[in-house]
Amino acid sequence: MKKISSLLLTIIFLFSYALPALAVSSEKYDGQSKKYEILMEKKIEEDKNKLLERAKAGITDDPSDLNPETAILINDETKEETKIPVLKTTQMYKKVKLSDGTISEYYVTDSFSAFAITPLGIIPSFQDDDWDVTGGFYAWGRVSYTKSYLNGYDTVRLYQCEGGWEDHDPTGSISNMNVKYGQSGQRADNNKPFETWLDKKPSSSTFSYYAPDNWPELRKDITFGLQMGETLSATCSAQGSTWNFKVTINKKSNW
Fold first, then answer.
1. Residue 239 contacts by C-beta under 8 Å, 6 or more apart in sequence?
2. What is the residue-averaged pLDDT of the chain?
3. pTM of the model
4. How confident is the model over 198-232, as pLDDT tens digits?
5. What is the pLDDT of residue 145?
6. Residue 174 to residues 45, 186, 230, 243, 244: CA-CA distances in angstroms?
């Protein structure tokens, strides 16, 4: 038997920040170059063993990130649906103060889900640390985003979505990989609704997509609501059965 942690991939996150003392620099923000003061900055945890332990313990650096996630398996023949756990953990890796007083926080949310197709049925992976990885399918995702605060207004913006799938069943296969990512809510610049979700078909078992530069910061509104994130779906076949594996990382929150 192998530990489930042996499945975890090493994801190279595209931010590589140094750890300077409090400093003043310049960055692009809403299309304008503004000075900012670094209030906190640290390396993002990339060790998937540690991230999985954080996720199992329910650890998050974003206090508003309280929504549980579930993955759905749909049997291709019977249309039977089975829900399996999605474990997630959120890190805040940077906090800055802009010259206009805006506080911006930078976050990444890592999510994990896995299951095995057996003669006895579906087995969710994370219920057993000694789960046999040779019979399983695995999906992971990372959502990167910012939260900003100024004069009582809170805004968020999606930055990047990453993820992928693994097949550890010698008789198994993964096909029809699809990704949907985006954000919806009230624009912070003109109070109009904004909703854009992009459909992608990755050419490999891993993917990385950035939010377009013209996507605005969003504000929570009773009418429009607020959400962002990604949905991964793929067809997984093994043991004579085929299932659609759908994992949603939805940052719908109490922002």
1. 117, 118, 119, 135, 169, 171
2. 80
3. 0.81
4. 999 999 999 999 999 999 999 876 677 788 999 99
5. 95
6. 28, 37, 19, 10, 10
Per-residue CA distances from 127 to 26, 115, 118, 147 (Å): 46, 10, 15, 33
Asked if 74 and 235 count as a contact pair (C-beta separation under 8 A), the reply is no
Please answer whether residues 147 and 154 qualify as being in contact, where contact means their C-beta atoms are separated by less than 8 angstroms: yes
CB of 226 closer than 8 Å to CB of 186: yes
What would the pLDDT profile of 64-107 be if each residue is shown by its tens digit? 776 667 799 999 999 999 998 898 999 999 999 999 899 999 99
**DSSP element (H, E) containing 51:** helix 48-56
Angstrom CA distances, 216 to 27, 32, 73, 153, stand at: 16, 14, 34, 15
Query: For residue 177, which of 135, 213, 211, 141 has the smallest C-alpha distance?
Result: 141
- Residue 150: what pLDDT? 75
Sign of dihedral through CA atoms 149, 26, 33, 27? negative
How many alpha carbons lie under 13 Å from residue 36 in its C-beta half-sphere?
A: 21
